[in-house]
Amino acid sequence: MLRIDNVTKKFDGFTAVDNLELLIPRGQLFCFLGPNGAGKTTTIKMITGMLRPTEGCVQIDGIDNQQNPVEAKRRIGFIPDTPYLYEKLSGREFLHFVGDLFKVPEPQKEEAFAKYFSTFGLMDAADQLIENYSHGMRQKLCFSVAFMHRPQLLVIDEPMVGLDPRSMRTLKNLLREYCRDGGTVFLSTHLLPIAEELADRLGIITKSKLRFLGTTAELRTNLAREGSLEDLFLELTEDGCTDPVADVIPTREVTA
Q1: Among 42, 77, 207, 255, which residue has the fewest nearby CB atoms (within 10 Å)?
Q2: Rounded Cα–Cα distance for residues 61 and 198 (Å)
Q3: Average confidence (pLDDT) over 89-99
Q4: 1-75+151-256: which CATH number, 3.40.50.300, 3.40.640.10, 1.25.40.10, 3.40.1180.10?
């Protein structure tokens, strides 16, 4: 579903992402982890088409997102860590506005409105202006809208920011349901217990390079120690860790 082929991104001589290669199949919930400044946000912007790679390419369901950006973006739902919304629209109006952009049929928009606004507890605020929404409500609105056009890939940056515990549980259940139905999730988060609970597979990036690719169990095997994902992550990404990528990443092909 998502293929990142030897992608590098440079800014004025600085390499933000260095020769990244990933293949994430349908139905997988993939967590992308790394310290601040490691290259996570740059990677997300290249996946969603907001940045053009210096080298390499990104394909969504076999579609190059630079050569055919409109078709690639039709297949993506994107939830940023800080939602930028039209504050003079109500939540209901915003959902219909985005639905029109994606040419979503009216019955599908109404179905999404009924399902997700009810699931996330937004019904009472559906006709309030977004400028009056809390951060958590804005985040829930973003998820409602992202699910609406039934994307094949969800790209999510820090999904739990601003959500209360009940909303977190609701979202985790929705993401599991989405993957069971054949959707693919690319999720970036600093909340390592969330990643440990949800991820089918992990990618850990530090200093612009992919340091690990695999499951939490495989990470324990590679580091030859037990411990939580938080403990393993901190050991792998500590400043003194400068081994070549090939020494850490278990190479195993996964078909899309």
Answers
A1: 255
A2: 23
A3: 96
A4: 3.40.50.300
Q: How far is CA 121 from CA 54, 78, 114, 125, 177, in A?
A: 43, 21, 11, 8, 18
Rounded Cα distance between 109 and 99, Å, is 6
Contact 51, 45 (CB under 8 A): yes
Q: Model-level pTM greater than 0.85?
A: yes
- Closest to 136 (Cα-Cα) out of 115, 121, 147, 146: 121
User: pLDDT averaged over the chain?
Assistant: 90
Tens digits of per-residue pLDDT, 187-241? 999 999 999 999 999 999 999 999 999 999 999 888 888 888 988 998 888 863 4
